[in-house]
Design a protein that fits this description.
The complex is a heterodimer of chains A (212) and B (348).
Chain A (H helix, E strand, L loop, with lengths): L4 H9 L2 H13 L4 H21 L5 H24 L8 E6 L7 H12 L3 E4 L6 H11 L3 E5 L3 H4 L1 H11 L7 E5 L5 H7 L3 E2 L3 H12 L2
Parallel strand pairs in A: 1-2, 1-3, 3-4, 4-5
Helix pairs in contact in A: 1-2, 1-3, 1-4, 2-4, 3-4, 4-5, 5-10, 6-8
Chain B lengths: L5 H8 L16 H8 L6 H4 L1 H14 L4 E7 L21 H6 L5 H19 L5 E7 L2 H9 L1 H10 L1 H26 L3 E7 L12 H21 L4 E4 L8 H7 L3 E3 L8 H8 L4 E6 L1 H6 L2 H18 L3 E5 L9 H20 L1
Parallel strand pairs in B: 1-2, 2-3, 3-4, 4-5, 5-6, 6-7
Classes of the chains: A alpha/beta (212), B alpha/beta (348).
Chain lengths: 212, 348
C-alpha cells in the first residue's frame, strides 16, 4: 500500500523521483487525484514556502520542490481531464515590463506558479502593454503578473493597467506586480490587485486572489 | 580645481580614514555621462578607446573622484553566453556540454577585446587618478551566465560533480585572466575589485553552504593573487548576504560595496563591519533616481557627514551604480553635498 506521506515529503525535499513514483503508485491504487493534490502536493509546497519565508530554505529548495510538484502534476493531468475537473488552478500571463530586460525574479515566479499548479504563459522581457492585453485575451488568463527591476520601468506598470481598462477587461483579470524597487504602497497607487516580494509569496497571493 | 589623488581612496581599503571624503561608484553608465555632458560616447570605447577614456576620466575628475571604475567583462567573451540579462539558456547543461565548452579560447578573446582599452586607459589617465576594477563579473555570475540561474540551482542536486567541476573550471579561468591583469596592469589600478552578486532581497542566491563550499574558495584564489602582488581587494556584492559575510570577511577582503535600503540601512553595515573592513556606498540608487537636487543634497550632507564621522574607512556613493536613469540633478546633489562635507571639514 502506498505511503502517501512520501508524496508530501518528496515535495518538501524536492525529490522528483519519489514524487513521481509515489504518484504512480497512488493512481494504481485509485486514490482520488484531487486528494493527492490538495492534501499532499499543495501541503508540501506550503511547507517549503513557509520554510523559505522563515529563512530556513533557499531559492534552490523552492525550485527543487516546484520541479517535484510539476512532475507529479504531469501524471495527474490526464486523470483530471478525464474527470472533467479543473486541471490548473488558473492561467497566468507574466512578463517583465517594457524597457526592462531583467528576468531572474520573473522566471522564479514562473517556476513556482507552474510547480504549484498554475498554467503560465511567459511573455519574456521588454513586454508592451499591448502584448499583455493581447495575451490575456488569447489565453483567457485569470492573472497578469508584471515584473520590473528598474525604478524607471516600474512606472510603466501603470500604463499596462490603463491599457487593460481601455480594453474593457480590467475587471476580468487580477493584476499582480513584483520586483526589487516596488512596494505594497506602489502597487496600490497604480491600481494593481496585489504585490509580492518573492516567488513564494507570489504563489500565495495568486491563490488568494483566485480563492483557490 | 580638484586634483585626484588615488592614494586618498586607497585608505578606505586599509580601513583607515582618508584625508578627505572620497567618492566611489561601482559604475557610472556611459548613457548617464552622455546625458550629463551632452556628448555622444556610446560605441567609442571600441572604436576610439583613447578618446573614450579621456572623456570618461575627465567626467570622473570633474566630479571630484580620485579614481574611476573599469572592468574588463569576462562573461561578455563567453561563447554562446547570455543567460544573465540575455534571456538565453546557458550553453552548459550537461557533462558533455561542459567537456566540449571552449574554455581555452576565452583568454584569447578576452585580451583581444580588452587589451586596447586597458592600454588606452594607461595613456590617458589624468595625473593622480587611477582605475579600480580589473576583470569584470564574478565566479557565481559566470556560472549563471554559462548555465542559467534556475538550472544552476537544480544542477547542484542532480549532478553535484558537474556543479563542483564547473566552479573549479571557472576559478581556473579567473586565475588565468586575473594573473595577467595583475601582472601587466597593476600600475593603472589603485586597487582591484570583483563584483559577484550573491544575494537577493531576503537571502543568498544559493544555500550558504553551497556558496561557502563552491564559490568562495574560487574567490579566495583571486584575493590571494591580488594580495600576493601587494594590492588591495574590494568585493562588490548585491543582496542580502549577511549570513555569509563572516565567511566572506574570512577570505581576506579589504572592503565591501553595495547596499540597498530595502534590505538594510547602511548603518547596519557600519554597525556590523566598520571595525573589520572598509565600506563604500550608503545612498540607495532609488533615492538618487527619484529625489530632487535639494532632497538628495540635504540627505547626503547629513548622513554622509555622519558616516564620515563614525566610520574608519569610508567612501561615499550610491549603493550600486549611477544608472542611466539616475537624474543629473540627483547626481549633482550628491556630488555637491560631498564637496560641502569636505569644505566643512577644512574649516573645522
Amino acid at each position: 500500500m502506498v505511503k502517501l506521506t512520501d508524496l508530501y515529503n518528496a515535495i518538501v525535499d524536492g525529490n522528483l523521483e519519489l514524487a513521481v513514483s509515489t504518484t504512480k503508485e497512488s493512481l494504481q491504487e485509485n486514490i482520488d487525484p484531487q486528494i493527492l493534490i490538495s492534501d499532499y502536493l499543495i501541503k508540501g509546497m506550503e511547507e517549503i514556502g513557509a520554510r523559505f519565508e522563515a529563512g530556513k530554505a533557499y531559492v534552490p529548495n523552492l525550485l527543487m520542490s516546484a520541479r517535484a510538484m510539476k512532475g507529479a502534476l504531469e501524471l495527474l493531468k490526464p486523470y483530471m481531464e478525464n474527470n472533467h475537473e479543473i486541471v490548473t488552478l488558473g492561467k497566468v500571463v507574466i512578463g517583465t515590463v517594457k524597457g526592462d530586460l531583467h528576468d531572474i525574479g520573473k522566471n522564479l515566479v514562473c517556476s513556482m506558479l507552474e510547480g504549484c499548479g498554475f498554467e503560465v504563459i511567459n511573455l519574456g522581457v521588454d513586454v508592451s502593454d499591448e502584448k499583455f492585453v493581447q495575451a490575456t485575451r488569447e489565453y483567457k488568463a485569470n492573472i497578469v503578473c508584471m515584473s520590473a527591476l528598474l525604478t524607471t520601468t516600474m512606472v510603466y506598470m501603470k500604463e499596462v493597467i490603463k491599457a487593460f481598462e481601455n480594453a474593457g477587461i480590467r475587471n476580468e483579470v487580477k493584476i499582480m506586480v513584483g520586483g526589487a524597487p516596488l512596494s505594497e504602497k506602489f502597487a496600490l497607487e497604480i491600481g494593481a490587485d496585489g504585490y509580492s516580494d518573492n516567488a513564494n509569496a507570489a504563489v500565495a497571493l495568486a491563490r488568494r486572489l483566485l480563492n483557490v | 580645481m580638484f586634483q585626484p589623488n588615488a592614494n586618498n581612496i586607497l585608505n578606505v581599503l586599509y580601513n583607515r580614514r582618508p584625508a578627505y571624503l572620497p567618492l566611489y561608484e561601482h559604475h557610472i553608465d556611459t548613457e548617464f555621462i552622455e546625458k550629463y555632458t551632452g556628448e555622444e560616447l556610446t560605441g567609442y570605447q571600441e572604436t576610439e578607446p583613447e578618446y573614450f577614456f579621456k572623456k570618461i576620466t575627465a567626467f570622473w575628475k570633474e566630479n571630484t573622484y580620485d579614481a574611476f571604475d573599469f572592468e574588463a567583462p569576462v562573461c561578455d567573451v563567453f561563447p554562446d553566453h547570455g543567460a544573465i540579462m540575455g534571456g538565453k539558456p546557458g550553453p552548459i547543461q550537461t557533462r558533455s556540454d561542459f567537456e566540449c565548452y571552449p574554455f581555452d579560447e576565452i583568454p584569447i578573446r578576452f585580451w583581444e577585446v580588452n587589451k586596447p582599452k586597458l592600454d588606452a586607459i594607461r595613456k590617458v589617465l589624468p595625473p593622480g587618478m587611477k582605475a579600480y576594477g580589473g576583470c569584470g563579473y564574478g565566479i557565481f555570475e559566470s556560472a549563471q551566465d554559462l548555465v542559467g540561474y534556475e538550472n544552476l540551482c537544480i544542477l547542484q542536486y542532480i549532478d553535484p560533480e558537474l556543479f563542483r567541476d564547473l566552479f573549479i573550471r571557472i576559478g581556473d579561468l579567473y586565475v588565468e585572466l586575473w594573473s595577467r591583469m595583475i601582472h601587466e596592469y597593476s600600475d593603472i589600478f589603485i586597487f582591484f575589485r570583483m563584483g559577484d552578486d550573491l544575494g537577493h532581497r531576503t537571502s543568498t542566491m544559493l544555500e550558504p553552504t553551497t556558496i561557502i563550499n563552491h564559490i568562495l574558495p574560487q574567490t579566495k584564489r583571486i584575493i590571494d593573487l591580488v594580495h600576493g602582488n601587494s594590492k588591495k581587494f574590494l568585493l562588490h556584492s548585491c543582496g542580502n548576504i549577511f549570513e555569509i559575510m563572516p565567511d566572506i570577511i574570512a577570505l581576506g577582503i579589504d572592503a565591501k560595496h553595495s547596499n540597498e535600503d530595502q534590505i538594510a540601512p547602511f548603518d547596519e553595515w557600519i554597525k556590523r563591519y566598520n571595525d573589520k573592513i572598509g565600506l563604500f556606498g550608503g545612498f540607495d540608487v532609488n533615492l538618487l533616481a527619484l529625489g530632487s537636487y535639494q532632497t538628495i543634497y540635504d540627505e547626503v550632507l547629513e548622513r554622509g557627514a555622519y558616516y564620515r564621522q563614525i566610520c574608519q574607512g569610508y567612501g561615499l556613493g550610491s549603493g550600486n551604480s549611477i544608472a542611466s536613469y539616475v537624474s543629473v540633478d540627483g547626481f549633482k546633489g550628491m556630488i555637491d553635498a560631498v564637496k560641502q562635507i569636505r569644505a566643512n571639514e577644512k574649516q573645522e
